[in-house]
Amino acid sequence: MCYIFLDAEGKPLNFERCKGEEVAVIRDSTTGLDWEVKSLDEENFRYCNRPLNWFAFVENYIPQLNKMAYGGFSDWRVPSKAELRSLIDYTKTSPAFPQEIFRTLTAQDYWCGATYGLRSDCGWVINLNLGAATAKNKTLTSYGVAVRGRKCPDAKSRFIDNGDGTVTDTFLKVMWQKNQNERKSYDDVLKDLPTYNFAGYNNWRLPTMHELNSIFDESFEGGSWYFDEFFEHDKLKPPILQHITSNLFKNTYVWVTNFNFGYDGYYAEKSMPLCYRLVRNLDAANKKFQIPSGGQIEIFSDKGEVININASLTKTSSATLQHCLIDLQTGLHYEKLKSFAPYIDSDFYWTAEPHTLTDGARVWAIFFGYGCAVPIEKNQRCGCIAISEGYANLADKSEARYTVGNGVVIDNFAKLMWLRDELPLMTAPEAENFLAENELVGFSDWHLPGMKELSTLINRKVDNRQWVSKNLFPKFYDESFAFLVARETFNGMFNWGINHMFAYDGYYADRLRGKYKIKPVRGVT
Question: Which of 111, 152, 197, 364 is the most exposed place for a label (fewest CB within 10 A)?
Answer without folding.
Answer: 197
